[in-house]
Amino acid sequence: MKRKFVVILTFFLLLPCIGLSQNTVIDSLKNELKSYQKRDTIRLQILNDLAFYNYSNNPNEALDYADKAARLADEINSIKGKGQSHYMKGITYLDLGNYEVAIDNFQAAIDLFISIDYLKGLAGCNNALGVLFHYQGDLQKAIANFKKAMAIDKELGLEENIPHYLHNIASIYSDLGNYEEAFINYEKALSIYNEKNNQYGKLHCWNAMASAYVEQGNYPQAMLYYNKSLETAEITKDSSSIFMALHNIGNLYKQQQNYDKALGFYKKALVMEEAKQSLRNVMAIKSSMGGLYIQKQDYINATKLIKESLALSREVGDKDQTAVCLINLGHIYLANEDYPKALNSYKAANDITTVNQKMHELIHSYLGLANVYLLTNKKELALSNVNKAIKLANKHQHLVHKKNAYQILSEIYKKDGNFKKALESYEMYKTLNDSVFNEENIEKITQLEYEYKYKQQIDSLSINELKLTKTIKATSQDLEKSQRNLFLGVITFLVSIIVLGGIIFSLKLRHQKAKTQNIAIEQKLLRSQMTPHFIFNSLSVLQGMILNKEEKKSIFYLSKFSKLLRITLENSRDKLVPLNQEMEAVNNYLELQNLEASQSYDYTILVDKNIDETLFKIPPMLIQPFIENAIEHAFEDRKDNRKIDIQLKYISEELIFTIKDNGIGIDAQNGHKRKDKKSLATTITSERLKMLSKDFNIEGSVHIEDRKQYNEQGTIVTLVIPYKKDVA
Fold this sequence. Notes:
α6 runs antiparallel to α7. This protein has helices at residues 7-10, 22-35, 41-54, 59-76, 79-96, 99-115, 119-136, 139-156, 162-175, 179-196, 199-215, 219-236, 239-255, 259-276, 279-295, 299-316, 319-335, 339-356, 359-375, 379-396, 399-415, 419-436, 439-479, 484-529, 532-547, 551-572, 579-593, 624-634, 666-669, 675-696; strands spanning 577-578, 602-607, 616-618, 643-651, 654-661, 701-706, 715-721, 724-725. The relative contact order is 0.04. The chain is 74% helix and 6% strand. The chain contains 30 helices and 8 strands. The radius of gyration is 33 Å and the shape is globular. By secondary structure, the protein is mainly α.
């Protein structure tokens, strides 16, 4: 979404600041207006003040007060008052998204202020025009107006307004992809806000800096600043800032593919803005929700929301948001293979972003065009557009776009038969993808969520302790003379409660850390099972099938692969999964691996009759690493008669898996180079079983043997798995 500018802060250049709540101020001003009937500059100022305090929440009433102020100004010949009334109309129409009328009013105000050399008024108008031109996508005009306003305030010695201008200029540099200059200005502004303890200014700075970090792919730093912003907004009860933080946190979760959390934040933000009838914010949140549904491949909901957002953006003349909506529509048409409509949408977005130089959307439009040209066999045009995207992504450090560009480039070279460059591009894509979604980012975000959650609990506990302390002090004063002994008993009791509460909180904290450790181990296990090596090999097999025109086989292979990948990723988030669901994943994995003719094998899966698979729940993905070891390493010297037998037994209330192969045996494998991969799977599984055994109060274990001790050939793996069983 668009970064929120701090234009509201500079409105006080023209109007007196009243240190009361907004509703109290409005009521007070209305009473003044009733009691003060003289038609002079005092009444004129009251009308303009009422317009200001109503412009955001009650725009129609604000415009009515501004019109009354303009008529009174004409009557008493007050040029300054007339200019202020035009200014108030301008900021009201700006908030409503009616930019043309807003510009007309700002220009009228500027002409009047110039005629009387009223510099404060000129600064306010230039600042507001800077925001307006930014919303319209004319970034050069926006910078010029902000610099004019800042120069005037420096001349007037109004140092308190300087950080607001620095913030706004930084936001434009960030939109242009000049992050170095952007962060220089953000840090200057933040330093002044901290010095002045300006909470409003700080939270807007944090929010804007977080958005810039997102564009650079630095998600942990972005989450840190978004949480700071949301925390401060909730303390100050600033609804506009709360919306902004909710929306941006939703965007971050969407980029991390945590769609449920993202949708939850989006819906909270949408309810707030629909109640306020803020068209700009409503269209932005609907656009973001539409983008989420695109990623979930729910194109019906996505199309509805994106078209609603597009209509609103065109209604208010917001070219930036129009470009975002067109790009998202392009994605939808592309997914539905409607290439002409997709091409038109991407071209229209590219036309807008080429002019306004919004780098994020400009690169996105080039990637969209490259995709359409690739799928319609116009390889030269595809190559031209993807190279433009890579050039801009490199220049402006857009890591996510750069990753996507190399993925498209790999497909272009592959289609052109240049497999060497295709492989080089794909390897670059994989490297960049690992940089964006690496383990460190995921763990840091989890840790930041954890710290933020418990910081809130600690703050709440501190507040309760403070209230309790005040209560104790008051009670002490009342009972000091007559009930000292009773009071000391109460104090002892209360202190005991606080100590006990501290112990309980400490235990909860320790439990939460243990859960976090469990999650980290499960993530390691997931990576050991679904390695990039396996995914790359599977895609290579699929490529071979497609090149050999084995359409049915490739479709079947892709279906099995996507289903396995989906089940595996879904199961990795759950502590327990149904036994039948885990067995389905194992069967899919074996069947998928068996599709490659050069590596085919026979396999069986036997489940004892006394086991009802629907009643058992087990930890996910404990079995698959050992099956993968058998497939990859057991049959290195054997081309035929390959067998893998899997059996599930329930004996003496123990759930036992055995995995047998007739390969070279574990003792022979230990002499090969791949030894440490297998031992890693065994170590991780043993570590996990140890922790699960404590959690379930059921002993779990893994045991690997060479079958030669039974006068047989191959390896046998025996897993005793902790479980939970539902009552039939």
